[in-house]
Write a structure and sequence with these properties.
Blueprint (H helix, E strand, L loop, with lengths): L1 H7 L12 H21 L3 H44 L3 H30 L2 H28 L1
Helix pairs in contact: 3-4, 4-5
């Protein structure tokens, strides 16, 4: 768009033989300088949207992480309370399930952090890697619980 605007001004100049040539030359120099600086001074709609996109993505990522972290922390509070009550009443399997729930909320927090970080940095690859690592950790813990309950 900027190139198109600059090309429009490049037509044939009007006749200036009746004017003082020094003034004409000074005006042409001024116009050339203004034209040279135009791309850095003019912001078209698409240019403005592109420059604002990263900030909007970072803002959305921060809001997403804020919402998910509040939900996860509230869930963890309830699950930790239930887990403690289960341990006190010697319900070990229920406590283990609650502990798995706490880890699941950690996954939710980790995933939200990874997504927010990836969105801010525009690195979906790193978000995918972090989420995969968290999923592997939960799977190991879940397998451990399954093996323990199978023995009992």
């Amino acid at each position: 768009m900027t190139d198109r605007m600059l090309a429009q001004g490049g037509g044939t100049p009007p006749a200036s033989s009746a004017l003082n040539q020094k003034i004409v030359q000074a005006v042409q120099l001024s116009n050339a300088e203004t034209g040279a600086y135009a791309p850095s001074q003019i912001a078209t709609g698409p240019d403005m949207m592109i420059s604002q996109a990263a900030g909007l993505v970072a803002q959305s990522a921060a809001a997403y992480f804020d919402g998910v972290s509040k939900l996860a922390l509230a869930s963890q509070g309830v699950l930790l309370k239930d887990m403690t009550e289960s341990l006190v009443s010697q319900q070990i399997e229920k406590a283990a399930e609650d502990a798995l729930g706490v880890l699941a909320t950690d996954v939710m927090m980790g995933a939200a952090a990874a997504v927010a970080a990836a969105a801010g940095a525009m690195e979906a690859e790193s978000a995918s890697f972090a989420i995969d690592r968290i999923d592997q950790s939960i799977a190991k813990y879940s397998d451990l619980l399954s093996k323990r309950s199978g023995k009992g």
